[in-house]
Amino acid sequence: MSTFSFLETTTWQCNGCALPLQPAKVTATYLGGSFNVELMACPQCGFILVPEDLAVGKMLEVEQLLEDK
Amino acid sequence: MEALSPCPPAPAITLYEQDELSELTGGALRPGGIALTAELLTYCNLEPGSSVLDIGCGPGHTLNLMATNFGLVPTGLDPSASMLEKAAQQAPSAAILQGTATAIPCEQSCFDAVVCECVLSLTGDIAASLREMHRVLRPGGVLILTDIYCKRPELQPDLPDLQSCASRALPLDAVTDGLAQAGFALVSLRERSDLLKQLAGQIIFSYGSLEKFWQLFMGAEAARRTCCALAAAPLGYYALVAKKEVRHG
Amino acid sequence: MDQPQRRELEARCIQEEQPFCTAACPIHVDVRAFMAALAKGDLREGRKVLDRTMPFPEILGRLCDQPCRPFCKRGEIGDPLAVGRLEHYCVTNTQTVVKLPKLPAKGGKVVVVGAGLSGMTAALDLARKGRPTTLVTSFSGLGGRLRDFSETTLPPSALAQAAELLHSYGVVLHTAASLDPEAIDGLIATHDAAYFDWDEIAFSQLPFAANTPDPLTLALDRAGCFGGGGTADGSAYSAIKQVDDGRRAALSIERFLQKVSLTAQRDKEGRCATRMVTVTKHYAPAAEIVPADPASGYTAAEAQAEAGRCIRCECLECVKQCVYLREYKEYPKTLIRKIYNNQAIVQGTRNANKMINACSLCDQCATICPNDFPVAEVVRTTRGNMVDNQHMPPSPHDFALEDMRFSLSEHCSLSRHQPGTASSRYLFYPGCQLSGSAPEAVKRVYDFLGAQLQGGVALMLSCCGIPAHWAGQKELFQQTLDGFRAEIKRLGNPIVITACSSCLSIFKEFAAEIETTSLWETLDALELPTDAQVRPTTPTNALTLHDPCTARHQHAMQASVRNLCAKLGLEIVENPFNGELADCCGYGGLMQFANQPLGRKAAVVKAERSPLDGLAYCAMCRDNLVAAGKPVAHLLDYLFPAPEGGNPLARPNPGFSQRHENRARLKNGLATTLWQEADAPVAAHKQIRLILSQEVLDLLNSRHVLEEDVQRVIHHTEATGRYLINPANNHRLACFKPVRVTYWVEYQPTDQGYLIHTGYSHRMQLQEDKQ
């Protein structure tokens, strides 16, 4: 399965680890659907950034699709 | 879907778009992708060296999988010359044939297995296709068949006449009846509508919405109608394995 | 709903009923479509319309006596349309466009005796049905009385065309036949059915005694013999009557030959009644356009102008007022059909569900409909079925139902006898939205009622459950009602005084054994609070009164509201969509949750019924109208003005978060001050102070992110120290998942509290792939 990359240059850094975010491969799941996505995350503690436009955009669309029976 | 190319009279799809789309599922734009094919081939446990016919082989990802990972001897069949050209490149060891499922250009009983993924509902004459598949299989040979099906047959007449597989989808019992009539015995039937949802989700992540995806294949108005029609008459996905009876019943 | 029920229901919607002209026309010409074509100057299209129903348009189009004209609705607002003249114009300027098909030949030989227009029509209709037909006349050609018209009135070419048409369908024409009784007897004997055209044949020529033919079937006393056409003693020749009879007789003969009932279900033949209703009051009167030169008839421009006067009669009265029906481009009959199909699927799919969940259930359409088409009932039942079959997606109603649960929880609910009493004659039930929107008003009202009414006034802060009712959540709704009933019983069955018309409608419908009344009727019967006389905030201009949709049938309440306004000296103006016709503000049916933009449209429509500022007495109406940009006050703002003053017309919409806060504070505040109960412990996260601009508040509101959710995120984050930081501006970004939803907040700590920049949420869960 292909990976959907939502990487973007970001100024956000992980405060706890004092490290800039790096691309990370993430699995996003909801109601049985499972998708490989690439998001920015902290290389040390693993805090994954979900950007606002992704959450209210494509992610919301897919959530609603999966909710329909 | 790769199988849209044999669908008459589908609009032309550029090679670029085909390639891009097929990336979505690791090489094959169909629910479950190449992973499902591998799963089904594993289940069938074919002897290396077995001859397998891939009906609607498209750019040849399945042919390559069969040759490389399973040591099978694949033959690809597709009505599209441009597809076959790509298949020849993807799977150089495979035999390539141009033709349709309703008139397979092969001798009878010459294959150990037939694979037909997400293509049957597009062949135009499902009964004829199943008969042909039966004919070219040796007795005891297996058929791997996956496709969409119509979950609400009573609504099918309400679907506008779309140039896509959605309007041809059969109810599941019509498929199993057709198999029995063609002389197949059902070995395993799995309901895999989750794969259809998965593919839809992947399409949304790539293109932003299902409607934008359909617009790649048809005009904006037809894309909108497709979405509405599919919303009204939902589809499911099945994956089955059947065997050609050794004695004709 | 089963098929027969559904058909009966669909039949109530009259949108598809025939317009008045078509119903009055014996052959049901689609005059409306004809006018539409001619209004565009499309003569060919107009001819097509005529070809489809008229036999011999080149004859009938010139001669028809227009029985439709008196029924033309345009006649109520000016002159009725000149249908005949326009048809004349059309047929004289076009040739046949549509030739109807001929069915395959069957048996059943028919003879038509007398080739007047009636006989010709019967012969044409029967030949088209595949019956071998012979047309017999004693004259040298066909036409009967038609041959007497002048050439200008009816050119010979018209008759020639008709003869050719009949010939093309295989009708055999015998001219110059002798038609004495013996000859006719012979014709009857050699055919399976016969039609006599009285235009040419007299009773005396029949070989059998004939009484007047049966008016329904045109049957004569001899089996298989039918008669029609001609003129009844002395009256003028009517071309359309010839055609009417000929067509009726052809249908009778067809039935006779098929050996089926001649009489069953023939009520739609010939002129018939229609249930169509068309409102004409919005049209300006317009006079008929008469040709400048009557001899040559219409010019193209004149014809177009006259046809343009057609108002295209249809109903759609409910659609004209309803944003929901307009949004989904349905009228009740088609809406029910769509819903029925979805119900038959019983499969949720997003578009279909959204449509089912977007109706406000306000019943305005049923009130407008001449036949009371009950859209709301069907939609709400459908929602209930979807919930029962587990096909209702969670998101449209989740938020509203959570809101309801919060109102029912111990944080917000309260149910007590009046302080210092142990029994109550009355109970004040403000409702969840008033408590959320104007908690101080609730306190003042309660104090007033407690002082003015004898026997004790209990207080219940709760939610009546209408969100569950609207969402189709029958079990949840039932539980809520049972809870209400139990509490009322525990408090000794007081009379329930509701401030909200929605609560009142629920209690009256589902808990009718409990005595309920509205706050407005109660106040109307009491002396007004004295400080209501001091009105620094009285508006200078009149206000338009907005009735809430759930008060539609509560006439006593509506009257009391108006009385109170009069007593206060508040000048109010009615708007055309008040009372029974009140619009929904968008809250009804949970419309604004299922389809937020549509909810906003509904509020705008309601607001724009009048250019004036508004007065509402439902908290949700007021808040939604204000959110739509209209200054609207609540009646309680004038009855129980706030001591600190302020302009009731300028009070903003509190939003969901503030409503939560208000309800909880109201309960806690009253519990401690009136009933001396201990302060409820405040959860740690609720002590977090948030600073939010109006813009951010609106954004969170529209995304259904509560301030409490924001507090939870920050509380969790500051405790764990896990957040992202933007070194450029020191903003922090963090997330927290209390139960199902993950909330994200971008914020900045300041001395005064946490400044919030944005907030959002998602349901998908993420896990890093460990490679």
Task: Please count the beta strands of chain A (DSSP E, at least 2 residues each).
Answer: 5
- Count every beta strand of chain C, where a strand is a DSSP E run of 2 or more residues: 20
Helical percent range of chain C?
Answer: 40-55%
Low-confidence runs of chain C (pLDDT<50, min 5 residues)? 344-348
Strand content of chain C: 5-15%
Strand percentage of chain A, roughly?
25-35%
Distance between the termini of chain C: 55 Å
Number of helices of chain C: 32
Q: What do the pLDDT scores of chain A average to?
A: 87
Outline the biggest β-sheet of chain C.
Answer: 5 strands, parallel
Placed side by side, the strands forming the largest sheet of chain C appear as 3-2-1-4-5
How would you characterize this protein structure?
Chain A has helices at about 50-55, 60-65; strands at about 5, 15, 20, 20-30, 35-40. Chain A is of the alpha+beta class and about 70 residues long. Chain A starts with a strand and ends with a helix. In chain B, strands 3-2-1-4-5-7-6 form a seven-stranded mixed sheet, sandwiched between helices. Chain B has helices at about 15-25, 35-45, 60-70, 80-90, 125-135, 170-180, 195-205, 210-215, 220-230; strands at about 50-55, 75-80, 95-100, 110-115, 135-150, 185-190, 235-245. The longest helix of chain B is centred in the C-terminal third of the chain and has 15 residues, at about 195-205. Chain B is built from nine helices and seven strands, in the order ααβαβαββαβαβαααβ. In chain B, α2 packs across α3 (about 60-70) and α5 packs across α6 (about 170-180). Chain B starts with 14 loop residues before the first helix and ends in a 5-residue tail after the last strand. The relative contact order of chain C is 0.07. In chain C, α1 packs antiparallel against α14 (about 330-345), α3 packs antiparallel against α4 (about 45-55) and α7 (about 115-130) runs parallel beside α10. Chain C has 32 helices and 20 strands. In chain C, the strands form four sheets. In chain C, strands 3-2-1-4-5 form a five-stranded parallel sheet, with helices on both faces. In chain C, strands 6-8-7-9-10 form a five-stranded mixed sheet, with helices on both faces. Chains in contact: A-B, A-C, B-C. The interface of A and C includes residues 26 and 45 of A.
